[in-house]
Amino acid sequence: MTTASSGSAAGTGGSTGNTDSTGGTGDAGGRTSGIGSGTQPRWLTAAEQDTWQAYVQGSTLLEDHLDRQLQRDAGMPHIYYALMVYLARAPRRRMRMTELARAAKITRSRLSHAIARLEKYGWVRREDCPSDKRGQNAYLTDEGNEVLARSAPEHVTAVRQAIFDRLTPEQVTQLGEIMWVIAKGLQPEGTGADLPWRR
Description:
The protein is α+β, with helices and mostly antiparallel strands. It is built from 6 helices and 6 strands; from the N terminus they run βββααβααββαα. It has helices at residues 46-74, 78-89, 97-104, 108-121, 142-162, 169-185; strands at residues 18-19, 25-26, 32-33, 94-96, 124-129, 132-140. The radius of gyration is 21 Å and the shape is globular. Mean pLDDT is 84; it is low at 5-20 and 22-34.
């Protein structure tokens, strides 16, 4: 696991040769080499380092937990389930492929690969968009909707046990507010930012 401080793994020491989160290395004098060389980074404080490590470990373990649960109980990875949920919530269970990529925060190539697999299962179908000859819609089939309905109880139980049963109502609110701040900051509107669904 890489760290984002110039000190020890806890972010408080002054040992040399530690790798930061961008791939550069820092020494006790704060000098860097590698990626970002020539700039002075704002090393994380001990408290920030603890929070960063908690986020990295928690988010990594959570994604692994949910992916394994869905593979075991529904025979699909987490991203396939998420795509089917977005389609199930859309009007007439249809979404433009470009909008589906944006909703799922994934690249168009990754979406295309996932939809191709879901088509083989018979759970999703692609169809031409009536309003745009160059566009395509993804459609959640009746069979896919049934699979989703069967899979949902085990999945919501896994989500609840992993997150919401461990938090107080106040922490649930705080977690939502914090993650929305991060999400919105990483997808600025009207800037042409290099976002996954534009690739």
